[in-house]
Amino acid sequence: xxxxxxxxxxxxxxxxxxxxxxxxxxxxxxxxxxxxxxxxxxxxxxxxxxxxxxxxxxxxxxxxxxxxxxxxxxxxxxxxxxxxxxxxxxxxxxxxxxxxxxxxxxxxxxxxxxxxxxxxxxxxxxxxxxxxxxxxxxxxxxxxxxxxxxxxxxxxxxxxxxxxxxxxxxxxxxxxxxxxxxxxxxxxxxxxxxxxxxxxxxxxxxxxxxxxxxxxxxxxxxxxxxxxxxxxxxxxxxxxxxxxxxxxxxxxxxxxxxxxxxxxxxxxxxxxxxxxxxxxxxxxxxxxxxxxxxxxxxxxxxxxxxxxxxxxxxxxxxxxxxxxxxxx
Length: 328
Known about the structure:
Helix content: 40-55%
Low-confidence stretches: 1-34, 166-191
Oligomer: single chain
Order of helices and strands: EEEEEHHEEHEEHHHHHH
Strand content: 5-15%
CATH class of the domain at 18-185: Alpha Beta
Radius of gyration: 33 Å
CATH topology of the domain at 18-185: Herpes Virus-1
Structural class: mainly alpha
């Protein structure tokens, strides 16, 4: 990425007259030149509705960088460079900080779309889910904001159901920066009802693990129309296992979690029986392949020895012919 260009005075948003510009001119000091960090400039999409959260962009012309306002606000490693002025709706992000956040995002994959650039992380300290902001919403993650304290954080769907467990999360570093939320992130009544119900039955399930509780629990899910939701959550968890195991950055705790899910669940007992048969089949195939390789090696060694004998006989015959010709 190109280096940031030298500072050039810019208009203060909300004060478009030329008289407002001298306040940001360079200050010449005896020890050198003091430069004000270049800020991202606010832009609004002329074709989007005014009340949608994705119509507000911030742009850095010198670096050809553009980013959605909420993508900036909810990025875990980015804070505003100045305290927010309540009378000014514009945000304060300096270009260099945004460039560093873009660089950090290149190492992070989104849980939803599996592409890099996922700078919005779940606020729970031990959760390693990362998203693009709009992918997070598609995955039913829950953005949370406190405009007074300047905290903008996100909880994945799993941890949004237990907000108390996320109080010691990653959002502390955003305090002291006053940020503004341009979109409406209030959960729908259906989603809140669903999350509350799942939270309650999970707590009940944790207190009683015998079959007399598990059966009514499943029946209640069915009556509430949440059985498919529960099964989809389980399937999503199972589908994410191969990706986690193949990822080189998978942590030891992830392996332990996956191991517990697979080996401690009676649901997979038949699978393990079949898997054992597959192992035996692979062992047999490997033994056959090893026997074939052994026979092939023996054949090649025999061929090599035959060739050596042929070469020796040829040399011997050539030597005898030479001696015979000399005797004449």
